[in-house]
Design a protein that fits this description.
Layout (H helix, E strand, L loop, with lengths): L7 H10 L1 E4 L5 H24 L7 H7 L4 E5 L26 E6 L1 H4 L1 H7 L2 H10 L5 E10 L8 E4 L7 E2 L4 E6 L10 E3 L12 E4 L2 E4 L12 E3 L6 E5 L4 E3 L8 E9 L4 E2 L16
Antiparallel strand pairs: 1-12, 2-3, 3-4, 4-14, 5-13, 6-15, 7-12, 7-14, 8-11, 8-13, 9-10
Length: 284
Amino acid sequence: MSAHSITPEERRQFEERGYFVREGVLPREACEALNGRLSSRIREVAEDYRAGRRAEWDFWKLLLRSAHGLEAFFVPQPGTESQGPPRPPLALPSEEWERLCARVGHGLHRADEEFAAASHAPAIAEVLRALLPSPARIAQTAVVYKQPRSEAVQFGFHQDAWYITLEPETLALAFVALDDMDAENGALRVEPGSHRDGLYERLAVGANGWEPLQPPRRFVPREDVLLPLPRGSAAFVHGRCFHASGPNRSDRPRRSFILHAFGGDSRPRPGCWIGEPDGGFTAL
């Protein structure tokens, strides 16, 4: 048995609670290296915008374009929210764009060698392969970046299977902490057992954002649990398990590497924003 195989207790937690946490999935040094790589890629994107090699700034168009590549998503500069649609901060030097970055994705495993290697790290890939029907494949990879002292990036309770809609539904998430995470900087919160309640909603990307594909049900949290994670730890979360995270009210960055995978005969449903790429989805 591999050292990275899931234990009977982890399987029980995943089946009963919809998640489990494993420490030491990535060494802290590897997290530092990925954070450095992230900074380099954000700077490259900024340089492309400043040189005119990139022009698209609309979030929803970028989201679709990012499905199998690398795009960076930025929040408006402070004080400009009332000045019309968000615009690239072209007056800023490229190295200063990182403080405005909210997300980089959603095909990091396809567009970047270092994030591809992290996606296939045994302590991530073997766990997901054990949780999913064979063959397991990667749907998307990204980094969610919560800037220090920022309310810009936060998420209410949701199921990831709302957005990555599959038939049959086999989605699972590996949520890897690239920084130490706690209540102050927006650690993950989960609702134990909520994956057994079924899927509350299905969404597709329209011209102005998410559009429902079915009438939604209302979710009311009952006993949500905070998951503080040391750097390099991971939460493995069922695609139907409700989870959320608040803003970063600390002086520290809060970066998470997220990998969604699925297995078996599953395929994206019509309307899913992630379609199958040329050559098929990447195997885990």
